[in-house]
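Thought: the user asked what Response regulator looks like in 3D. I have the sequence; next I should run the structure tool and report back without guessing.
Action: structure_tool
Action Input:
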Amino acid sequence: MPKPLRALVVDDESDVQILFQQRFRREIRKGDIELQFALSGQEALEILKGGAAADVVVVLSDVNMPGMNGLELLGRIKEEFPELEVYMVTAYDDGELKTTALAKGARGYLTKPIDFGTLKEEVFGLA
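Observation:
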């Protein structure tokens, strides 16, 4: 059985965890995907430094968070875990922000509300 794809979702809004678990419930049940959640950039770094980086394939991070914002987190991840793919998620479709995120090493830039069909296909490679 192939290893599940592991993703770390970083968002300061706790309801995002419920939303992702609902939208991916079939894939989680089948063992195709495992989701971990962090409520801050600092918590995400602690999870990755705690050994999860070896298993996590992709990070989905909100841009606007208190404390360390998503762009700062992106920079830290790219410094410490350059092999990780990071997608930025934001409610604001801002061209300058998108350009900055991609220049800092983001693999992609997704706007809210998230199109979970596209997310499953393009980010996770699930049909």
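Thought: the tool returned a structure. Summarizing for the user.
Final Answer: Structure for Response regulator predicted. Residues 5-123 form a domain with the Rossmann fold fold (CATH 3.40.50.2300). The first strand starts at residue 5 and ends at 10.
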